[in-house]
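Z., the sequence and structure:
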Amino acid sequence: MSEAIRKAAEWWSDPESEAPGTQWVQVPGVKESINRRATGDPAIDWIDHSASFLASFTKPINVLSVGCGFGAIERLLRRRDYCQQVHGVDIAGAAIEAATKTAEAERLEGLTYEVADLNTAEFPKERYDAVYAHAALHHVFHLEHLLDQIKRTLKPGGLFVVQEYVGPSQMQFPQEHLYLADVFLKAIPERYRRTRNGRVKQQAARLPLDTMNSSDPSEAIRASEIVPLVASRFEVRHFRYIGGTLLLLLFNEIAGNFEAGDTEVMPLVNALIALDNFLIDRKVLPSYHVYMVCEKTANPLPMQTRNSLPPAASVFPTDNLEALTVKPPAIGSITAEPNPFRPDSLGVGETTLSWMTYATSNVEVHVDAPDGLLFARTGPGRFSQLTGQSVRDGTTFYLQNVSKGLPLVAENTIATVTLRST
């Protein structure tokens, strides 16, 4: 293991390497903005959106998570039951140990973890249905090796799901980006610019290379190369710039100072989020972050033969990629166990309903009609609920998509289940 990789392993073994309240994505309203750009719906995150691509896969779905850190993505995938087996790998031994213990504490089955250096790791051939990389690729020195291994380990037609920082390598931000951020930073009242150590943030972070290399030499080491290297190996099915350029420069270090209910500063925060989107969409600023869903195909040179992706991320315009935006329909299922159920002398019994949905933000279960008696209301993912002693032969439950206030009509019925008695 090289000295640089050893330092990176030590850095990311520390839970305080990304201390709470320091990351721009924690600012209220930012998550919804990212979701809107990634999936088209502020209430649907990239995990839920990516799972819609997996809905037709044969279960159990087997997933590899590279650069898993403390295991948040893997636990989310299992809680929502989007895949049944997830194997996480990361260079940071302490992070892997913590991820394993957290999964055990939450009694999540199907999660395994392993310490591995992504720069040299070799994965088994055609093992996984999907590979997830969240904020991990930009820490890899030998990107070509890792991407080739990911392609090798995916089954034919398997998916490579990426949510990544793809901005300036090693965080060497252009002066014009820093200048713009400094101007708007001064518009934020001083008390909201205090960092965890009590100092007031006066300007966007300037990160000299010696400072970067002394803490985490892997940070964004080849970030600006990620998009073209991925696109040269996989067919890109969905690509979205998700923003976070001005926002990263403004809110890193001070994100924990903002609360959704703070009427004094949140109008300014919301305006800055809108400005970030506007400047990116008008190509004044590049997007520092992307969300991609890619597929392993037999095509040996996807980017060159499709000719849909230019060779450099900096000239990768959003409006050329509208055809690569996928807005999957709401899909799901609802089942009952037992079905048939055993009734009492009055013909009444009970069962347990289980339902799962993809590409939704809110669903409801209704009895005997799309707009019948409300039985349950949930978000996306997998849920179960006991009916109690209330169902009869022929009782039907309707799983309804109510995202964005959709009405309770047959057109928005995702699935139904009709109960039978023994």
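The mean pLDDT is 90. The first strand starts at residue 62 and ends at 66.

Let me know what you think.
H.
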